[in-house]
Amino acid sequence: MEKNILIVDDDRRILKSFKDILEPEGYSVDTAETALEAVEKCRARPYNLAIIDIKLRDVDGTDLLAQVHEILPRARKIMITGYPSLENAVDSVNLQADAYIIKPVNPDTFLKVVAESMDKQLEAEQMTEDKVVGWVESRYDETRRNRSKRKPMGPELLPNAEE
Amino acid sequence: MEKNILIVDDDRRILKSFKDILEPEGYSVDTAETALEAVEKCRARPYNLAIIDIKLRDVDGTDLLAQVHEILPRARKIMITGYPSLENAVDSVNLQADAYIIKPVNPDTFLKVVAESMDKQLEAEQMTEDKVVGWVESRYDETRRNRSKRKPMGPELLPNAEE
C-alpha cells in the first residue's frame, strides 16, 4: 500500500532532513518550498499526509492548510512550527489540522506522529471500503433471495436439461 | 434528517443558554454536566456533534475530547473555553477537535460554527453513502453485462413465451 507524504517548508535543509528520516521507513516523500508549489503538487497527486511548516515565504502555513484541506479533504495534515502561538494553534484546530508539532522535534517523536496519522488515514479509507463491501454483499444476498422466490428457472436448471 | 448535539459544561446556566440558542434552529440537544455523564450519553446515542467545555468538574475537557473521539470517531467535536492557552489549543489539535471557540462567544458566531460543523458531518456521512451507492450501481451493471453474455434466456424471455 502506498504511503505518500508531501512536506512543505521554506528551508531546504529541513526538507532534506525530514526526507532522510521518512524514506527509510517506507514512505514516498515529495517536497515543496512554497505554498504555490504545494498546491500544484496536491492537485496532481492524492497524498495521504501533508506536513506543513507554519512560516512559509509566500503565505502563512495555516492559509496553506485551508487550501490543502479543500483540495485533499481526506488527507491528514500535520502542522509544524518553531514559533508556537495561541493564535496559530487555534487556527490549526479551526482549519482542520490533525496534529501540531513544536520544533525542535526529535526524529522518534516525529516518526511516531507521522505513523499514527498515516495509520488513521489508511484506516479511514479502509473503513469506507469495508462499508462498501458490506453493503454490496448484503444487497447481493437480498437480491438472490428475492430472485429465488419469484424467478422461473432457466432451461439449464430444469431436471431434464441436466441429463 | 436528525441533527443531534451533546453539550458538556459544568455550569447549568450555560447549558440552558446554549440549548435555548440551538433548539429553535432545529437541533436536538442533550446536555451533560460531567465527563462521566457525557461518556454514558455518547455510548447510548450517535451524536453528530459534541460541544465540550475545556474546564469540567471531573476531568480536563481535552481528556473528554479523546474519549468522545474514541466512542464516536465520526462525530464533530467543538471545544469551547473561557481560559484559552497554547497548551489546551495544541492538545485540541492533537486530540482531533474540529473547532476551538473562545468565550464569551456571541450567539451568531456560535450558531455559524455549529452549522458549519454540522454541515461537514452530514456531508461526510452522505459522501460515504454516495460512494456505496455508486459502487453498488457499477457492480450491478457489470454483473448484468456479464450475465447477458453467458446466460441462456429463461422461458419468460423466449419469443413464444411472450405471446
What does this protein structure show overall?
- The structure is a homodimer of 163-residue chains.
- The first copy, chain A, has 163 residues and is of the alpha/beta class.
- Chain A has a single domain, classed as Rossmann fold (3-Layer(aba) Sandwich).
- In chain A, 55% of the residues lie in helices and 15% in strands.
- Chain A contains six helices and five strands.
- Chain A has helices spanning 12-22, 35-44, 61-71, 86-94, 107-150, 159-162, and strands at 4-8, 28-32, 49-53, 76-81, 99-102.
- In chain A, strands 2-1-3-4-5 form a five-stranded parallel beta sheet, with helices on both faces.
- In chain A, strand 4 (76-81), helix 4 and strand 5 (99-102) form a beta-alpha-beta unit.
- In chain A, helix 2 (35-44) packs parallel to helix 3.
- Mean pLDDT of chain A is 88; it is low at 156-163.
- The A-B interface holds A 79, 84-86, 89-90, 92-94, 96-100, 102, 128, 131-132, 135-136, 139, 151-156 and B 79, 84-86, 89-90, 92-94, 96-100, 102, 128, 131-132, 135-136, 139, 151-156.
Structural key phrases:
homodimer; 163 residues; alpha/beta; Rossmann fold; 5-stranded parallel beta sheet; 6 helices; 5 strands; 55% helix; disordered C terminus
Strand-helix topology:
Two copies of one chain form a homodimer.
Chain A (H helix, E strand, L loop, with lengths): L3 E5 L3 H11 L5 E5 L2 H10 L4 E5 L7 H11 L4 E6 L4 H9 L4 E4 L4 H44 L8 H4 L1
Helix pairs in contact in A: 2-3
